[in-house]
């Protein structure tokens, strides 16, 4: 969702939903709200985490023991300072639910960087600003998605973010074309899957960092557009 939205950093994490864990096996006991017609609920790895028979989300579980997986909020080995475990709530509606996605805490972010070996030059003191940039970039991305979705407002007035996939090592066609022209390459790419009231549509997002503007709001830019997966997407792109 650079620090802002890279697989090199943790993506948005789904909020724990203990109140929803007692969903009845009866489909009638847990109907899909009208605004959220896609019953699927996914985690940050694009894995479905709810019972297909019931659209209400269940806790994410470890398939090895069927026990709930809790986010790692413990300090990493060698960590010198305690980091906040507080998690900010996003404004991005979470597909299949009536809630929103929740961002990682500074401790979760730091742990993910350490786990992936991407912590060179990163200190505990950097985490608050890194997490803030990550959250801001994702909020900005969603606003761009909503601008496109207004073209389909007659189909759905309340789109939600169903799932997303980081693809940092794959250039989108637009980024590849720009590379041929020796333009700036994106530091990350995401594919976001939006629930358009029961219809799943994919968006491609390229994230750019401009070294010559480092330290300014213009250092990060993004390009958001519908993936050309359907005739509707082609029409929207032409518009």
TrEMBL record:
Gene Ontology CC: one annotated term: mitochondrial inner membrane
Location(s), subcellular: Mitochondrion inner membrane
Keyword list, A-Z: Heme, Iron, Lyase, Membrane, Metal-binding, Mitochondrion, Mitochondrion inner membrane
InterPro entries: Holocyt_c/c1_synthase
GO MF entries: holocytochrome-c synthase activity; metal ion binding
UniProt-listed Pfam families: Cyto_heme_lyase
E.C. designation(s): 4.4.1.17
Bias type Low complexity, positions: 19-29
Region called Disordered, residue ranges: 1-32, 62-81
Main location: mitochondrion
Function: Lyase that catalyzes the covalent linking of the heme group to the cytochrome C apoprotein to produce the mature functional cytochrome.
Family statement: Belongs to the cytochrome c-type heme lyase family.
Name listed for the protein in its UniProt record: Holocytochrome c-type synthase
């Amino acid at each position: 969702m650079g620090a802002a939205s890279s697989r090199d950093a943790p993506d948005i994490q789904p909020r724990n939903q203990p109140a929803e864990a007692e969903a009845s096996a009866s489909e009638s006991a847990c109907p899909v709200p009208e605004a959220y017609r896609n019953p699927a609920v996914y985690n940050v790895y694009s894995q479905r985490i709810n019972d297909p028979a019931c659209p209400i989300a269940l806790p994410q579980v470890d398939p090895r023991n069927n026990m709930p997986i809790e986010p790692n909020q413990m300090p990493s080995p060698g960590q010198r300072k305690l980091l906040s475990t507080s998690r900010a709530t996003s404004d991005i509606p979470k597909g299949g639910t009536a809630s929103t996605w929740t961002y990682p805490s500074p401790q979760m972010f730091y742990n993910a960087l350490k786990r992936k070996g991407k912590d060179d030059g990163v200190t505990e003191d950097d985490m608050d600003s890194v997490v803030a940039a990550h959250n801001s970039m994702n909020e900005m991305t969603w606003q761009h998605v909503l601008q496109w979705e207004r073209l389909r407002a007659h189909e759905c007035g309340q789109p939600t973010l169903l799932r997303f996939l980081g693809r940092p090592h794959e250039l989108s066609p637009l980024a590849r074309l720009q590379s041929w022209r020796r333009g700036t390459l994106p530091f990350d790419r995401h594919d976001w899957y939006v629930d358009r009231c029961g219809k799943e549509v994919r968006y491609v997002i390229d994230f750019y960092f401009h070294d010559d503007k480092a330290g300014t709001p213009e250092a990060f830019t993004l390009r958001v557009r519908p993936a050309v997966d359907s005739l509707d997407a082609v029409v929207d792109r032409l518009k």
